[in-house]
Amino acid sequence: MSSQKEIYLVRHGETEWNASGRFQGKLDSRLTEKGVAQAAAYGRHLAAVAAEIEVLVASPLGRVRETTAIIKTFGALPEPQWEPRIAEVSVGSWDGLTHADIDAQWPGRLDETTPFDWFFRSPDGESYDAAMTRVTQWLDSLQGVVLAVSHGLVGRLIRGAYLGLTKDDALGLPVPQDVIWRLANGCVEPIRVS
Q1: Contact 24, 14 (CB under 8 A)
Q2: Which residue is catalytic, options 6, 88, 126, 151?
Q3: What is the dotted CATH code of the domain comprising 5-192?
Q4: Is 183 exposed, middle or buried (0-12, 13-18, 19+ CB in 10 A)?
Q5: 86-99 burial, b for 16+ CB within 10 Å, e for fewer?
Q6: Of these residues, 12, 14, 66, 83, which one is catalytic?
Q7: pLDDT tens readout for residues 65-89
Q8: H/E element holding 157?
Q9: pLDDT tens, position by position, 9-55
Q10: In the annotation, is 88 catalytic?
Q11: pTM (2 decimals)?
């Protein structure tokens, strides 16, 4: 990746479905009180670098819109560009379900999966290759200092693509909701905000 770009990557704050173990995909639930506090912590930290940020790019999904609105209250950031290429991966029929729901409706479908690759076992969800292609195209289009507000799984893919990681290594990356990831000069640095 070019050293001409610098990306601050943020995952949306905790949602009601995150807290209850329900997988959102393209569906949405509201931020919890904890999620609102996480978004505010992102905003307080990003206010210190707001003058450097040239572009604010965010997933168009509701939980990211809510997080982005809170972040923007803390500093003079550009107006968001709503970017579908960094929206969360859809698990198709599994969007909105828990692991127990999936096991009940599709017995055996999650057998021999890991906590990281099960997303791509959905009968009608997005494939890893399709998701990685859209993320890589988005990364390649960037220049300057960018704040990106996105999701857990797509955040893994963004960091994995940036670092040139294998599929297994990319999918195994952590997805905390109290870290801003700084992608610059070929490195990914976590910045804790809690």
Answers
A1: no
A2: 88
A3: 3.40.50.1240
A4: buried
A5: bbbbbbeebbbbee
A6: 12
A7: 999 999 999 988 999 999 999 999 9
A8: helix 152-163
A9: 999 999 999 999 889 999 999 999 999 999 999 999 999 998 999 99
A10: yes
A11: 0.93
